[in-house]
Amino acid sequence: FWAHLYAFLMLYSLLGCEWLSGQFPLTQNVTVTEGGTANMTCRVEYNDQTSLQWSNPAQQTLFFGDKKALRDNRIELVRASWAELTISISDISLSDEGQYTCSLFTMPVKTTKAFLTVLGVPERPEITGFTKPAMEGDEITLICTTSGSKPAAHIRWFRNDKEVTGTKEVNATGKSFTVKSTLQLQVDQSDDGVAYTCSVEHVSLSSNPYQVTEVLEVHYAPHVEISHSAIIPQEGQYFKLECVSKGNPLPEPVLWSKDGGELPDVERMIVEGRELTITSLNKTDNGTYRCEASNYLGTSGAEYVLFVYAKDLPEPATDPNAPGQQDPDHALIGGVVAVVVFITLCLIIALGRYLARHKGTYLTHEAKGSEDAPDADTAIINAEGNHAAEEKKEYFHQEAERNVFHLTPENIGYANNYVFREEHVKCINVNDM
């Protein structure tokens, strides 16, 4: 307690009773945008008819009471009384920024400070570093620059409506700043006609940033596609092909051809700009149509295979020019092959069933000794120790109602010569075996 009381008494002795009774100047800091007007106010709660004075950062007196001391047409008196002194400074510049002093001429003189902050408005930005046109694949640099801002401005880049990131550089120029942002990109045909916008934001601009836009121009070689008016062209129809070409510069004109040569019927095949119109289709129009487009960077072409269908035939379900669609002749060949394969399989199945119904086994003595015999006669003679041929018996096993010869593999080569000789083959009834 005693320490606080001692501090209070010391402060009282230093400042005097006038301060305690409100005889002390009061001010506020002021912030104004360059080019605007600043009002500087100094007040006292109690004044025993003592004059107030404003002076600038260079300690030059501006006003003493209601008397103007400095010849500057921008400085004017707003209000002067024993309790208040307010002045205005118009057309503020960055050089006006600094610490201003309000003085109350008591004994001793009492002073207070007010800082005037001036916001430097950035200049409108400019985009440089790009020369039109660019070629596809080129690497280009866009530079957005603004100067005169205080504090330093903020720069943002946009590709159409999407923000992209650039590289920022800030340099001080006196009391203001120069800000530069660089955007590097490799362009292709998708960048042709794209708008790159540089946006400068600053506290002095409130919510209305400065913006500048550069629309890119990119040159690239043509790309060609063909569109057609009918999916299923039929005889007698009106038919149109359009050569859709992209490129910069725009490729003009386009060239039409058929099967590698000129269009054969110029009376029915009419070319207008990018369109080829056939007024009435017929079978002679079948073929491959090609369009080509060129600019100074190159040439591009596209082809369309036209197949005209008869009017009275059912239309195919798909476009013959669709990817993976077979040619009509190939489809016909495939169908024929399928029918042939089906018939062949049927014949094989029928033959197998026929052979299965006529199965039997031959038992013959001619097989004996046949391995060493040079021919069928010798085989028969050698069988059973060279017995007479008529004593050789061939055992035949037959099915119930049919007498069919079935030979064993050993005798099949020889028996074919003698199977019908009555003197060598004796048909034995199954019932007798």
TrEMBL record:
Q: What is the lineage of its organism?
A: Eukaryota, Metazoa, Chordata, Craniata, Vertebrata
Which of UniProt's keywords are assigned here? Disulfide bond, Immunoglobulin domain, Membrane, Repeat, Signal, Transmembrane, Transmembrane helix
For this protein, the record's Pfam families field holds: C2-set_2, Ig_3, V-set
Which SMART domains does the record associate with it? 4.1m, IG, IGc2
Extract the InterPro entries matched here.
Answer: CD80_C2-set (IPR013162), Ig-like_dom (IPR007110), Ig-like_dom_sf (IPR036179), Ig-like_fold (IPR013783), Ig/MHC_CS (IPR003006), Ig_sub (IPR003599), Ig_sub2 (IPR003598), Ig_V-set (IPR013106)
Question: Where does the Ig-like domain start and stop, copy by copy?
Answer: 25-117, 125-213, 222-309
Q: Which gene encodes it?
A: CADM2
Cross-referenced SUPFAM superfamilies: Immunoglobulin
- Please give the name of this protein: Cell adhesion molecule 2b
* Topology of this chain in the membrane: Single-pass type I membrane protein
A biological process (GO) of this protein is:
homophilic cell adhesion via plasma membrane adhesion molecules
The record lists the organism as Salmo trutta
